[in-house]
Amino acid sequence: MYQNQVQNPPSAAYWLSMIGGVLALLGGLLLIVAGAVAGVFTFGFGFEVIGGLGIWITICSLAVIISASKLKSDPFEHSKWGAIILAFSLIGSWSLLNFIGGILALVYKPLPVGEQQQYGQPPPQQSYTQPPAQLMTRVCPQCGRIVQANERFCPNCGKQL
């Protein structure tokens, strides 16, 4: 709904968070399966530890994926969704992609449609009241060197001008 209201969608933050969330989700599901297999051989203790960690990672990854999709649909709330992505990447999914995506969402600056990017004040236009003065020169009659008009002697041959 809000996607059409910004000129610069938060694409990098969205894709990094989404890819990191899906990878962490797959890792969490793999830990659940590994915990179930370990629980068979350890009479339930393996599932409590490994499977519980897998469930926690899965829940945090789902929160990251949902927050990333909300970030894309409502980019003006980038601070809220970026903080949620960052928090769940730190406490549960442990994905570097989610961490970077959360930081990018926090520093994202939405540009509404119709506005121009403000980079700073343009440099002031210089206006000349008179054209810049040109240096007056002349040629030494003895050696042919070009000298400034205000010199009395040639710096090359020493002839008085």
Radius of gyration: 35 Å
Q: Helix proportion of residues, in percent?
A: 40-55%
- Low-pLDDT sequence parts: none
Count of beta strands: 2
Which word captures the global form? elongated
Main β sheet profile: 2 strands, antiparallel
Widest β-sheet, arrangement of strands: 1-2
- Mean pLDDT value: 83
Order of helices and strands: HHHHEE
| Beta fraction | under 5%
- Category by helix and strand content: mainly alpha
What's the end-to-end separation, in Å? 82 Å
Instruction: Work out the helix count.
Output: 4
Describe the structure.
This protein has 161 residues and is mainly alpha-helical. It has a domain at 10-107. The protein is 55% helix and 4% strand. It contains 4 helices and 2 strands; from the N terminus they run ααααββ. The chain has a two-stranded antiparallel sheet with strand order 1-2. Strand 1 and strand 2 form a beta hairpin. The model has no long low-confidence stretch (mean pLDDT 83).
Distinctive features:
mainly alpha; 4 helices; 161 residues
Topology:
Elements: H1 11-41, H2 45-73, H3 78-93, H4 96-107, E1 137-139, E2 146-148
Antiparallel strand pairs: 1-2
Helix pairs in contact: 1-2, 1-4, 2-3, 3-4
Overview in brief:
The chain is mostly helical. 55% of the residues lie in helices and 4% in strands.
